[in-house]
Design a protein that fits this description.
single chain, Growth Hormone, Chain: A, MFS_sugar_transport-like, globular, mainly alpha, two-stranded antiparallel sheet
């Protein structure tokens, strides 16, 4: 009779079996990252200009020809009816170009609404999927949510209006949120405490972000890009038979026979010492405005690197704070809070119109508050994962004078194999 941490030590905490699980699950991050950042291309507004109607050139004496290539000037020409043809400076098409939103009042509305509603979808998707994963199992919910992500992603390429496309993006956001919550939890429950930080920090999300521009370069049509970026993820659905259910979750649910089979399979695959797996991380350089100085750009890169490190540490620590029985729910709650930040963050940028330092002050202050708050969380480095919720043993003793003495014993219920 032993606990799961001791079993992991016995069968190798990070052997070939865990490596294969980690790599396979990490591959799902690539299509998920593509789905997340796809609107940067499908909803982009490329530069364009008008081919003028020469019969109306005499009516243009009041227009500033130096601004002829600006969006405002081009829209004025279209409203005057002297724009023969709209010519785009780039061959890439998007929902903006297809549904002629360049000069529409809906342009800003569509762009903002698309970003906000997608992140709202991520918020609710993470919350709901986390709950279901703790009830129904990690693997089953993970593959159902991911399959829906692929299906809806393909369906979005057939949208016949920007309103329908936005609705598809809300659903896609929900399935991204669900996929990433379980994608993070599942491999962590197969490895020992010394490897949880590694598995929590290393992944293929950055690879997906870095490779989507290359895919967009070869697929300039937004519909082709949407259907291809989703369809490429179809083969991953068939890894369902290669990735087992979390043995920790099986033990918590009393399914000991299934857990035993997974652990035996783990022991068979880990006959030899494990070798460290190096993953290539491609980091997409953040876009920046032309007016940024070299010093500001340097600070931006340092900040981006710091955010990546803090995010990785927070992800790992968050997973270790919750017991197995509610770990997915806990992670989904944390993800929900993060999505609230993602929804509000783009709006804070607009405060720069009042004063340029305001957004930086807000972001920096919130980061400092978060860092100070993090200090008060329990340290989890190299400690076993808790499998059950701590319980209280309470014994009350009534004294003769009517007073009561309360004794508390805090313990943790551990399920044993």
């Amino acid at each position: 009779m032993t606990n799961f941490e001791e079993l992991l030590t016995e069968v190798n905490e990070f052997g070939p079996f865990q490596v294969s699980i980690f790599v396979l699950v990490s591959l799902f991050e690539v299509p998920a990252a593509w789905a997340m950042v796809l609107p940067l291309f499908t909803a982009s507004s490329p530069k364009w200009h008008c081919t003028l109607n020469t019969t109306h050139l005499n009516d243009l004496s009041d227009l500033n020809h130096t601004a002829a290539n600006s969006s405002l000037a081009n829209c004025q020409l279209r409203r005057l009816g002297i724009c023969d043809e709209v010519v785009y400076d780039e061959k890439f098409t998007s929902i903006i170009t297809e549904w002629d939103l360049e000069c529409s009042d809906d342009l800003f509305y569509v762009s903002t609404l698309l970003k906000i509603l997608q992140m709202v979808g991520v918020l609710f998707g993470a919350m709901i999927s986390g709950q279901l994963a703790d009830i129904l199992g990690r693997r089953k919910v993970f593959y159902v949510v991911y399959s829906l992500l692929v299906l809806v992603g393909i369906a979005s390429s057939f949208a016949n209006s920007w309103q329908l496309y936005v609705a598809f993006r809300v659903l896609i956001g929900a399935f991204i949120g669900g996929t990433m919550v379980i994608n993070f939890v599942l491999p962590l429950e197969f490895v020992g405490c010394q490897w949880r930080t590694f598995c929590g920090c290393i992944g293929f999300w950055a690879v997906g972000v870095a490779t989507l521009p290359l895919l967009a370069y070869f697929l300039p049509n937004w519909r082709h890009l949407a259907v291809t970026s989703s369809a490429v993820g179809i083969p991953l659905i068939f890894t369902y038979w290669w990735i087992p259910e979390s043995p920790r979750w099986l033990i918590q649910k009393g399914r000991y026979e299934e857990a035993t089979l997974v652990i035996k399979q783990m022991a068979q695959r880990n006959r030899r010492p494990c070798t460290l797996l190096s993953s290539l991380i491609a980091t997409a350089e953040a876009t920046r405005k032309d007016e940024l100085t070299h010093l500001s750009s340097a600070f931006a890169h340092v900040g981006k690197a710091s955010i990546a490190g803090a995010w990785a540490a927070t992800q790992v620590s968050s997973a270790e704070q919750f017991p197995t029985v509610v770990r997915s729910i806990g992670i989904s709650s944390c993800s929900m809070a993060a999505r609230i930040g993602a929804i509000l963050a783009p709006q804070i940028v607009y405060l720069g119109g009042i004063s340029m330092p305001i957004p930086y002050i807000v972001y920096g202050s919130l980061a400092l508050i978060s860092a100070v708050s993090f200090i008060y969380l329990p340290e989890t480095l190299n400690r076993p994962l808790v499998d059950a919720i701590p319980f209280w043993n309470c014994a009350c003793y009534k004294e003769k004078d009517g007073s009561a003495e309360l004794e508390l014993d805090i313990g943790e219920k551990q399920d044993l194999m």
